[in-house]
Write a structure and sequence with these properties.
The chain has about 375 residues and is of the alpha/beta class. The protein has two domains: about 140 residues, Enolase-like, domain 1 (2-Layer Sandwich), CATH 3.30.390; about 230 residues, Enolase-like C-terminal domain (TIM Barrel). The protein is built from 13 helices and 15 strands. The strands form three sheets. Strands 6, 7, 8, 9, 10, 11, 12, 13, 14 and 15 form a ten-stranded mixed beta sheet that branches. Helix 3 crosses helix 10, helix 5 runs parallel beside helix 6 and helix 9 runs parallel beside helix 10. Bound molecules: magnesium ion. The site of magnesium ion (MG) has 5 residues, from loops.
């Protein structure tokens, strides 16, 4: 028994030469708060990378770490954690992470239970609780979740953050030479069009490479079907997020009108979002994103997918490595995981921010045995938190 005595939230900011998804494109301009709208998907992005970290302490001195997205208005997430959630976690046992998760979720059900910032805050707290629970028990999170069912996870190279198709193609070839055979490109930055993008990548990477397209919710159902059918002759591995999240029936129609598997799920909040879409047969690959869900909901979404025969291919984007570690721990313990996203541009730049343990080489993630989520923030990262 070792109850939580302290819980705080902190922001990490990384100024990148090359922001996530590449530099500003013609017609895109950052406003005075450092935000710009990517024309290809009408979504706001910051010109820096940011994360919100949670640090909790227990009576016995064990520390647990969690992380969520902080790319937009990180202080909103910090306020939710420190002003609201912390006092409902202090005094409780990390080993009750699932019960605490559900109690915190229930606090706001009648006021907009799907709220993005609220669920991000809850995800970070949830990861910190699981981390502390593992450390208190002397076990990894994968062990707490039932134990490893695999020792490595196939990784696909995602986001080719180069300004031109020629450079993106050459970049993908470099990764292929390093032993990776699966790739995903982002439609909003495919300036020459998605058909040109996939045909050039296919020509450069050969017939056996797997190539997926992240369509960033930009289409109507009809235009998504047309776009996917245009890419199919070039060998499309899966089509990610083809239409607006809100249109469940539209997504089902897309999934049933094309031969390509549809992958979705990064932006969902809970297993309830998942079930609606599983029942509608709207996807064949689910892409849970740990930074938005935390371990409790990530497991629920994935286990419900496995019951339906849906493949689990976790999504992974910007972060310091803490929620990536949590995602890999869960993925090592989950049946039905067919691979995991590898954001090389983010991970390579996080070198020195977290302790060693995660390796991604020759097309596979490996994660050394450890306790909790298996890694910790280094002094360098801790010193940079505000
Ligand atoms: Mg995506």
């Amino acid at each position: 028994m070792s109850r939580v005595t302290k819980l705080e939230a902190l922001v990490y900011t990384a100024v990148r030469d090359e922001p996530y998804l590449g530099t500003l494109r013609p017609g895109e301009e950052a406003n005075k708060h450092g935000y710009f709208v990517r024309k290809g998907n009408k979504t706001v992005y910051p010109t820096v990378d940011r994360s919100v970290l949670v640090r909790l302490e227990t009576e016995s001195g064990v520390v647990g770490w969690g992380e969520t997205y902080g790319i937009v208005v990180p202080r909103a997430t910090v306020a939710i954690i420190e002003d609201l959630l912390a006092e409902f976690v202090i005094g409780r046992e990390p080993s009750e992470a699932t019960e605490i998760h559900d109690d915190l979720y229930n606090l706001m059900r009648c006021r907009g239970y799907t709220g993005g910032y609220y669920m991000d805050a809850l995800a970070a707290v949830d990861i910190a609780l699981w981390d502390a629970a593992g450390r208190l028990a002397g076990k990894s999170v994968a062990e707490l979740l039932g134990g490893r069912v695999r020792e490595s996870i196939p990784a696909y190279v995602s986001g080719l953050p180069k300004p031109t198709l020629k450079e993106r193609t050459a970049f993908a070839q470099e990764w292929m030479a390093l032993g990776f055979d699966s790739f995903k490109f982002a439609a909003p930055v495919a300036d020459d069009g998605i058909v040109k993008e996939i045909s050039e990548l296919r020509a450069a990477l050969g017939p056996d490479a797997r190539i997926a397209c992240d369509m960033h919710w930009a289409h109507t159902p009809d235009s998504a079907i047309e776009a996917i059918k245009e890419m199919e002759p070039h060998g499309l591995w899966f089509a990610e997020a083809p239409i607006a999240t809100e249109d469940v029936q539209g997504l089902a129609r897309v999934a049933q009108s094309v031969d390509t598997p549809i992958g979705v799920g990064e932006e969902w909040r809970t297993v309830h979002d998942a079930r609606l879409r599983y029942q509608a047969q709207a996807l064949s690959i689910v892409q849970p994103e740990m930074g938005h869900k935390g371990i409790t909901e990530f497991m629920r979404i994935s286990e419900a997918a496995v019951e339906k025969g849906i493949d689990v291919l976790p999504h992974a984007t910007i972060g310091t490595g803490i929620f990536l570690a949590a995602s890999l721990q869960a993925s090592l313990a989950l049946k039905g995981v067919v691979g995991h996203e590898f954001q090389h541009s983010v991970i390579s730049r996080n070198h020195g921010l977290i302790t060693d343990g995660i390796e991604c080489s020759q097309g596979e993630y490996r994660f050394a045995d450890g306790v909790g989520i298996g890694i910790e923030p280094t002094e360098k990262l801790i010193a940079a938190l505000v």
